[in-house]
Amino acid sequence: MLKAAFILSLTFCLAFAKHEQYAGHVLYEVTVSDAQQAQKVHALENVVGIDMWSYATPARPGLVLVAGSMRDYFHNQINAAGATFKIEVENVVEMLEKEDELLSAAVAHSNGTDNRLSFDVIHRYAAVDAYLTNLARQYSTVTVVSGGRSFEGRDIKYLRISTTNFQNNRKPVIVLQSLLHAREWVTLPAALYAIRKLVVDITDRDLVNNIDWIILPIANPDGYEFSHTNTRFWRKNRSTGHMIGNICLGVDLNRNFDYRWGTLSSNSPCSDTFHGAGPFSEPETVVLRNIIQQLRNRIELFIDIHSFGSMILYAYGTGDLPANALTLNVAGVRMAQAIDAVKWSSKPNYRVGNSALILSYRDSGSANDYVQAVGVPLAYTYELPARANSGGLNGFLVDPAFIEQAGRETWEGIKAGARFVLQHTRSNKD
Prior knowledge:
alpha/beta; disordered N terminus; 12 strands; about 40% helix; globular; about 425 residues; 13 helices
């Protein structure tokens, strides 16, 4: 009993030490009344000490994490923009400690087995890496591929799932990716749940027989591990050499792809949207580029899973629309409706549309835009829901009670997209 109490006490002490950098940080809800106010608020994104968690639009408030030293500056800038704010969380450390407490309790009761990962915890890189390898040993439909190494040398593995070993060129290919942004932990269960439903607990045999799948669960392994061990809200990868002394590290991988690269992103290494030295300068983005280039004539659907916001977004981040925007919207709505049919009632319905129009914010160099631009018919960014039901957790923080639900409801959206593909695949038109 004393030993258990000591371990619990030590865990809390370590958690506080890990989160000490967020002491004094405040989470604000910001409300804007028009696009002009939104643009002024969004311009604060590249200010050090201000972390734009979600973008305020006339349709909905945004969430912004602000360092204590920047509170007065933030207040003045929001007032000058004509927008309004209120404090959502006064002490973010308390919210971080609550997440640690809930996830630690979940780990103690985790029920994972050799051929599956449980959906009551957020799994670390090593567990997922071993799981992918184990699946390939057990199932003939699965091949594990090393796509390359991260900046810090971690293996970036993905699964190829196919009943014909990708040899039937008439079968469409669907590509899923998660954790391009390190702090978006809840996206990992969505990818793992899809793997389970395609490999272990198959309930939709047509999706396995008639489609070849590629699933990349941890696209940013270095950043993901760093968000567990050091800085919970770390977004970028962990590459160095961007400035003298490496005062600021990392590249926003979702600004590093070769579509309008560097035009609507930051050239400051200290910014969370720093685009890097050039398109595909980071080994992590090269992995996805190689997948897409190898199979782009067969890939019909690409989904990059992010959080948060309950949205399904499509190209382009510049505000320009692809030629097939109507089809993108129709398929997107079908996926959103499938998710909405099974989501928790406490979560908002998914919104579907062009990313720049939905977010009232433009960007460039995203994975989604790149994949669309090279000819994949249907490319989307999923933004999973935020705000868990217990403990007052919000934004990127994860309530264990929502982990399996995140996987289950996202899979319904993926299934709807897959069935749309089977109806409209390019091979059907040959």
